[in-house]
Amino acid sequence: MSTTKFGEYGGQYVPEVLMPAIEELTDAYERYVLDNEDGFMDEFRERLADFGGRPTPIQRADRLSERYDAEVYLKREDLLHGGAHKLNNALGQVLLARYMGKERIVAETGAGQHGTATAMAAAHLDMPCEIYMGKRDIRRQRPNVFRMRLNGAEVNPVTVGRGTLKEAINETMRDWATNVEDTHYVIGSIVGPHPFPRMVRDFHSVIGEEIRDGVQKKTGGLPDSLVACAGGGSNTMGTFHDLVPDEEVSLFAVEAGGDELVVDDEEGVAPHSASLSTGSEGVLHGARTKLLQDADGQIVESHSVSSGLDYAGVGPELSHLVDEGRVTPVNVDDTAALEAFHRLSRTEGIIPALESAHALAFLEDELGPDADGEHDLGEVIVVNVSGRGDKDLEAVIEETEKRDLDAAPSMEVMYE
Amino acid sequence: MSDDVRTAVSGDEPALIPYITAGDPSLAATAEYVEALAAGGADVIELGMPFSEPIADGPTIQDAIQRSLEAGTTPERYFELVESLDVDVPIVCMTYYNLLYQYGESGPDESDYERLRRFVARAAEAGVSGLIIPDLPVDESDPLRRACDEYGVDLIFIVAPTTTDERLAKMREQVSGFVYVQARLGTTGAQADVSDATHESLTRLAEWEVPKAVGFGVSEGQHATEIVEAGAAGVVAGSVFVDIIAGGDDVANRLEAKARELKQGALDGATTDTPKAGK
Ligand SMILES: Cc1ncc(COP(=O)(O)O)c(C=O)c1O
């Protein structure tokens, strides 16, 4: 039996009606994923290559390298089919559901990227699929909603609360509890009850394996630091997992600092999503982890300009690695992320997801012309570009207009 | 160990166990509603303590929880309400694990047991007789069990239609007060009929010594009759009462009338000669 916890984090805090399904899933995870029974992992890797387009490149970012006076490499998960790292996990879980004999897929989505990946994987593997998505996120991410529907998935709007990822997870858990006998819930990050945090990490760990190989080929050694954005933390752990044992590699998890790092206890809102940097221990969505909560234990509403990072919790394994001092949690604010979005687009010809722009903004905060440089990132830095930004264009236009951003193109002439 | 909950559920008559959310729409209203339910024949009252992420509840109770939170209900105000109640019926607190875990100021490196103990001590002091924590399966419940035993508070577990025999065996060792039989898959919410899973679950639990109460979907006297006929010692109903509260019209009288209807339905079920399980 794999342990359900990472130190004190993790566990299985779910309604009894789900426990048998979770035990069944744990058994399937151990047999198919860990022991490669029936060649599951071989089939998974083959489909990731043929359908998904893996491996994705490690690219040297020439202008960023010059700007930051370091060797900056980009892990191009934006080039994975569907436009984000999310496909690794979605494909793994939908395939596992098929091995388990499940007949129906449900999933939640925040940015829509996980929903899109799940809808694609479900279409690819011929499984019916329903996606829950917060109303507010549906508005922020229209192109992804349409993509899910193009792939034959139903998209169910969730109206309670602020209508973001947290509410969508609640709703998907309810669907799962009602249809647990034939349905698999493809959770979208390294969150939720055991075995999800381990299993999702394992499906994404191909990112870090490819980073190790790619950097080895290009530089003959290991990177000095890895940088990835953390909402739930799936691309973060996918990037880090293979290199956690290599203590000389620094690991930075970049959270959404939103507007500012405070919590309004009265209103129950946090204008950020930085649960690793500012959260406290509690139980949410089936796992014990670091959370944004008020003094009574009510979960507060988070905020980020990037819907994929807009979540009040984070994966239990990341919480543990932060407590152990192995992973350094950092954060950047909405404006810095938007500037990084424009900077990468203009200087390297890559339009990153707003989530990934957070990871890039950390470089600017640490190494840019106005940086105060609190952390030592070393010479060879890999940033995971977890996804591409096409889905974010509407949000970026709106948010850019609200701000006076140096790097942003003027849109005025376009509107006349 | 307190016997109030167990005694109340396994008395001569079948028990009615209504659920409402404390603080919906205000704590003062809840006090009045609890009295109305007691007057209508409730034997135990499940009083929900609102948590922002109620994953085991359906839309009806979720909305009630949201109304309650907006009205400013906190765990501490909940306990003050329970202290102020003047009813003869045991109160069971239904809530989610995070609220127990966060209760009060915690010191550095405190164990789970020490943290949970603070909540249980306060609950016991306020007069809460039992706890139902739907997101705490038996596998994770040892520290809470210990704290509950210490303060004589019952820890009530839910058995689902999907619960395996292996899990049932674990739960049998842990359960106290009564066992809550979840009549159908899914979340709480009023339904038009009694699920077949009810009979099956009661058969599986026939030999357990604790009384069994069936809930999830119960909304009419006839449902209560069928459930008692199937061998249950009690009937749990929540969303149907919460709907009345949400309606906002002549609430206390309608709660009392609904309680009376369900209690009568349960009594009708007991007049047939089927032996009552758990007696
Ligand atoms: C491109 C991209 N990166 C990152 C994330 C954040 O998720 P996680 O922290 O689980 O990688 C998302 C979430 O949807 C995403 O779409």
TrEMBL record, chain A:
InterPro entries: Trp_synth_b_CS, Trp_synth_beta, Trp_synth_beta/beta-like, TrpB-like_PALP, TrpB-like_PALP_sf. The keyword Methyltransferase does not apply. Pfam families: PALP. Keywords: Amino-acid biosynthesis, Aromatic amino acid biosynthesis, Lyase, Pyridoxal phosphate, Tryptophan biosynthesis. It comes from the Archaea. CDD domains: Trp-synth_B (cd06446). The modification N6-(pyridoxal phosphate)lysine is found at K86. GO terms for molecular function: tryptophan synthase activity. One of its GO terms (cellular component) is cytoplasm. It is an enzyme of class 4 (lyase). Pathway: Amino-acid biosynthesis; L-tryptophan biosynthesis; L-tryptophan from chorismate: step 5/5. Its EC number is 4.2.1.20. SUPFAM superfamilies: Tryptophan synthase beta subunit-like PLP-dependent enzymes. PROSITE patterns: TRP_SYNTHASE_BETA (PS00168). Tetramer of two alpha and two beta chains. PANTHER family: TRYPTOPHAN SYNTHASE, TRYPTOPHAN SYNTHASE-RELATED. This is Tryptophan synthase beta chain. It comes from Natranaeroarchaeum sulfidigenes.
Automatic annotation (TrEMBL), chain B:
This is Tryptophan synthase alpha chain. The keyword Amino-acid biosynthesis applies. The alpha subunit is responsible for the aldol cleavage of indoleglycerol phosphate to indole and glyceraldehyde 3-phosphate. It comes from the Archaea. The gene is trpA. One of its GO terms (cellular component) is cytosol. It is an enzyme of class 4 (lyase). Pathway: Amino-acid biosynthesis; L-tryptophan biosynthesis; L-tryptophan from chorismate: step 5/5. Belongs to the TrpA family. Keywords: Amino-acid biosynthesis, Aromatic amino acid biosynthesis, Lyase, Tryptophan biosynthesis. GO terms for molecular function: tryptophan synthase activity. It comes from Natranaeroarchaeum sulfidigenes. It catalyses: (1S,2R)-1-C-(indol-3-yl)glycerol 3-phosphate + L-serine = D-glyceraldehyde 3-phosphate + L-tryptophan + H2O. Tetramer of two alpha and two beta chains. It holds the Pfam family Trp_syntA. Its EC number is 4.2.1.20. The active site is at E46 (proton acceptor), D57 (proton acceptor).
